[in-house]
Amino acid sequence: MDNRAIYTSLKTGKRIYLRPVRPQDSLRIRDSIANLSDESRYFRFFSGMKKVPDSVLERLVAVDGVDHIAWAALDLAERDLPAVGVVRAVRMPGTHKAELAIATLDAYHNTGMARILMATIGCDCAEAGILTLEAHVLAENRKARSLFKALGGTCTQSDGAYMTYAFDVARMNDLIAAMDGLDGRRDVFAAFDRFSAYQPRLAS
Q1: What is the CA radius of gyration of the chain?
Q2: Could you tell me if residue 146 is inside a domain?
Q3: For residue 145, what is the DSSP state?
Q4: Residue 1 in domain
Q5: Residue 200 pLDDT grade (very low, low, confident, very high; cuts 50, 70, 90)
Q6: DSSP 3-state helix, strand, coil percentages of the chain (rounded to 5)?
Q7: What are the C-alpha distances in Å from 165 to residues 54, 103, 132, 169, 203?
Q8: How far apart are CA 183 and CA 181, in angstroms?
């Protein structure tokens, strides 16, 4: 089991706990998806589904840390430590590229959560040898598009309704590190310095 953990705070002062997604998180992830607003669920899955099929849920927690990397943000103030944000990167077979996806519960928008999650996935992808990320987003999802642009994302494809953004992982990490008011991102970078020193990544 991947026991890496990062404790940090959001802009609001709320404490969160970041760790890799585990197979036993299936119910936690299911509840998190159900607790998204209809709009946020549509933006994340391009669908209004409130209940995730078991087959999809199994794929979401089938994390190996190399070809499928996923981190969850858990709210330390809540009794059952609900997942309030999740970010993942799924490697395209035989490449150094991965598909990126991120979602946070609506109550955690504008708290710095998304940038903390992006810092986390960026650091982990760099360690796993993933050099490029690709994210698909609805054109109407202006918040995601603004975030992606701020992190160096370049629109590589657009058909009107959907857009694809590409990120150079190293450049994205540099941009995140250079942003004003590092807040929880500082804790992420410090944690990955420790992980690199004491927990070398094993090749699959």
Answers
A1: 16
A2: yes
A3: H
A4: no
A5: very low
A6: 40, 25, 35
A7: 29, 16, 10, 12, 28
A8: 5
CA–CA dist 20, 73 (Å, integer): 9
Distance CA 181, CA 173 (A): 15
Q: Number of structural domains, the chain?
A: 1
Q: Is 203 contained in some domain?
A: no
| pLDDT tens profile 157-177 | 998 899 999 999 999 999 998
Tell me phi and psi for residue 64, to 5 degrees.
-115, -5
Residue 118's region, left for phi above 0, alpha for psi from -120 to 50, else beta, is: alpha
Integer angstrom CA distances of residue 167 from 85, 100, 119: 20, 10, 13
The rounded distance, in Å, linking the Cα atoms of 178 and 170 is 12
d(CA 85, CA 81): 12
Backbone phi, psi, residue 199, to 5°: -135, 70
SS3 157: strand
Q: Quote the pTM value.
A: 0.91
- β-pairing, 68-75 vs 6-9, is unpaired
User: Where in the sequence is the domain holding 73, given as residue range(s)?
Assistant: 6-195
Half-sphere CA count of 196, side-chain side, radius 13 A = 12
